[in-house]
Amino acid sequence: MSQEIFLLDQSEKFPPPYLAQENPNGLLAVGGDLSQSRLIEAYKNGIFPWYCEGEPILWWSPDPRCVFLLDNIHISRSMKRALKKSTYTVTLNQSFENVIEGCAAPRAKEAETWILPEMKEAYLQLYKSGYAHSVEVWHNDRLAGGLYGVSLGRFFFGESMFSTEPNASKFALIYLSHYLKQQGFLLLDSQVGNPHLYRMGAIDLPRQEFLALIEKHIDWQQPQQVWQPKTLEDWS
């Protein structure tokens, strides 16, 4: 653990994640940019950007890391009933820009958003390059919720989710997890845990274990056509 926060210029590479701060947990570096190459390098090293308006770009690698192992998604009895009765349609990569706008919209319990215009533009470029992806939940042809993130190797690095109707973001997570498992993926990264994620089966992995998995599986070749826009099949 380092006693200093690393300052990045436009060309510097990230320091090793194990040098991140303990308080605040996982803060590793400040500065740099949100270029595609910088973001891909970050994810390949277990690092992600997270900052608010008025702050410089902050880069994080917390210990432990909150993840979903795809075999361990917990679907409660009430959620199973909701899934069976649902009239939602769940799709993949059919409305990325609208999903990220939904995730960035103000929320009742949050005074500000961390998905700033430059973040939206950076991830839109990742989407256009085939690295970022969205899951959409539709109700009567209206977007009711969804999530987005970055996928490399056997991992989906979740960034944010939203819902405007009951359970819509949970549907997105459940359907995506089922789909990723079918396609041979290993885990869905949720970065930092909260009670909602833990109730759905998320666990905390020591950063060392998380990074070891990345090193082993980040170069796995994803199946062809895996991220082509489509309607996702039944979760069961």
Automatic annotation (TrEMBL):
Top class in the EC scheme: transferase
EC number(s) stated in the UniProt entry for this protein: 2.3.2.6
Subcellular location: Cytoplasm
Keyword list, A-Z: Acyltransferase, Cytoplasm, Transferase
Xref: Pfam families: Leu_Phe_trans (PF03588)
Catalyzed reactions: L-phenylalanyl-tRNA(Phe) + an N-terminal L-alpha-aminoacyl-[protein] = an N-terminal L-phenylalanyl-L-alpha-aminoacyl-[protein] + tRNA(Phe); N-terminal L-lysyl-[protein] + L-leucyl-tRNA(Leu) = N-terminal L-leucyl-L-lysyl-[protein] + tRNA(Leu) + H(+); N-terminal L-arginyl-[protein] + L-leucyl-tRNA(Leu) = N-terminal L-leucyl-L-arginyl-[protein] + tRNA(Leu) + H(+)
InterPro entries cross-referenced by the UniProt entry: Acyl_CoA_acyltransferase, Leu/Phe-tRNA_Trfase, Leu/Phe-tRNA_Trfase_C, Leu/Phe-tRNA_Trfase_N
One Gene Ontology term of the molecular function aspect: transferase activity
Chief location of this protein within or outside the cell: cytoplasm
Family that this chain belongs to: Belongs to the L/F-transferase family.
Known role: Functions in the N-end rule pathway of protein degradation where it conjugates Leu, Phe and, less efficiently, Met from aminoacyl-tRNAs to the N-termini of proteins containing an N-terminal arginine or lysine.
Protein name: Leucyl/phenylalanyl-tRNA--protein transferase
This protein's encoding gene: aat
